[in-house]
Amino acid sequence: MMGMNIKGSVEKVNGKEMSYSNFVENYLSKNKPVVISGLMKDWKACKDWVHHDDGTPNLQFISSNFGNSNVQVADCGSREFTDQKRLDMSVAEFIDQWIKLSSEELSDHSTNECKDKALLYLKDWHFVKEFPEYTAYTTPLLFRDDWLNMYLDHYHMHEDPDTYKKRDDVSCSDYRFVYMGAKGTWTPFHADVFRSYSWSANVCGKKRWYFLSPEQRHLVFDRNMKNSVYDIFEEVNETIFPNFKKTTWLECTQDQNEIIFVPSGWYHQVYNLEDTISINHNWFNAYNVSWVWDLLLRDYKEASEYIEDIKDICDDFEGLCQRNLAVNTGMNFYDFFNFMVRFSFANIVQLCHLARSSVFDEWCSSSKAQHLIFNLDSTKDITTKMKNTCLSKNHNISLDFRSVLEEPAFLELCFQVDKTYAFIHDQCTLIDDKEKNLMGDLVDMVFCKLISTVVCNPEDLVILIDDILQSLRILPQKKGQNA
Ligand SMILES: O=C(O)CCC(=O)C(=O)O
């Protein structure tokens, strides 16, 4: 860490003593990193994947139970563009190589011969998607308000199956991962996908983290703001990165059974100080969804500038920019808008149920109702920012409330949204009977006129949310006053 200015350590707190609102107030809404203990007590992964005598990974257990899974493994010694080179192999092959390398390391200790061997790091293993019935862990309450994974459990991110099928099948199925690597494996300097939040839990081992706040982002880029530093411990070239010397850092060592919260847009570099297995999720919600849109807009501008010179000869320049955006960033404007529309509809359905099922006029002051209203308010803010883009000009977008309500995936999304906010706010779920038809439920409601709504552009969504919030907030009050 020669020459780097470490200004402090990431705070550590006991998760058993922290309420949800405390976490929101102090970390989520402030976008501040924290290490939390006490949230992994009953995880099956912590029992099955670790040797309890010495805390090392139980590689035999993982290989014999999940060895056939095909994964991507990073070669920590080889750089490929902005990341490490990736290799495809089975989990069993990866573990065989790990065991072989560590036994050679022991026998070659005096000769240093193992220095040239590749240090392999299994990353982004979609473990929950592949082994849902095993239930390796349960997501702690603090991280449950996860719009991204809730949506991806029922919908694909990309609407166009021909263009994106291959990518969707594996890499975009969800953002819940297992990471496994020997001591010395590491992750280069980066900020997370979509500028989402992430949490990362150490099932065994120790990690060292180095953090740079988003306010200092400009200091780690080259003069054109195109490329950022890859490895903060390499000699950073001052001519290319003239401002790097001005950076200030937070550091921390994350122990076994601790979970680190990585806020939006914070750059970080990570080292496994011991043989380590971790579980991590990327997610976003009302507090950081603006980061996602800001990134999409910035990446879109970059994508269109990059191919500016073919604009005049290109039949569908806009379409090409959006395809490139989806490939490079992981989603494009249309993917994001479709997501926002469906997620808003699901929140609206929940609010309608809450309003109808409550006998009290103050139904909308319950923490669950307030959360749903907050979600819709933030969705409205983001959608307002989308108004002056191609989304307003494309006449092929059409999401009507009635058809979406009839999608089986939407029904499932509604159940999950209901369960999630009931769990967070310790309230009962509203929709008990899976066979119940949501349409039928809504028919007798004053605001069912909105069922005929068709959303064709961001403006329509803004109007819909405004309309719904106004009706829902005002109607119960009026009812009370009339009674
Ligand atoms: O554990 C690692 O090696 C990297 C994890 C990471 O970058 C993250 O969770 O955002």
Account of the protein in words:
It contains 16 helices and 16 strands. Helix 10 (333-357) crosses helix 14. The protein has helices spanning 20-28, 44-48, 59-66, 91-107, 127-130, 147-152, 161-170, 289-306, 317-329, 333-357, 367-385, 390-393, 401-406, 408-424, 438-443, 458-482, and strands at 5-9, 12-14, 34-37, 70-80, 83-90, 120-125, 176-181, 186-190, 197-204, 207-212, 248-254, 258-262, 267-272, 276-283, 399-400, 454-455. Helix content is 40%, strand content 19%. The strands form 3 sheets. The chain has a 9-stranded mixed sheet. Strands 1-11-10-13-8 form a 5-stranded mixed sheet, with no helix packed on it. It starts with a strand and ends with a helix. The longest helix has 25 residues, at 333-357. The protein has 2 domains: 5-283, Sandwich (Jelly Rolls); 332-482, no CATH class. With 483 residues, it is α+β, with helices and mostly antiparallel strands. Helix 1 (20-28) links the parallel strand 2 (12-14) and strand 3 (34-37). 2-oxoglutaric acid binds next to strand 9, strand 13 and strand 14.
Q: Give the oligomer, counting copies of the same chain as homo and different chains as hetero.
A: single chain
Q: Tally the helices.
A: 16
Query: How much helicity do the residues have?
Result: 25-40%
What's the shape? globular
- Parts with pLDDT < 50 across at least 5 consecutive residues: 474-483
* Strands, total number: 16
* CATH level-four homologous superfamily name of the largest domain: Cupin
| CATH domain class name of the largest domain | Mainly Beta
InterPro entries: Cupin_8, JmjC_dom, JMJD6_ArgDemeth/LysHydrox
Organism: Artemisia annua
Domain JmjC: 128-300
Protein name: JmjC domain-containing protein
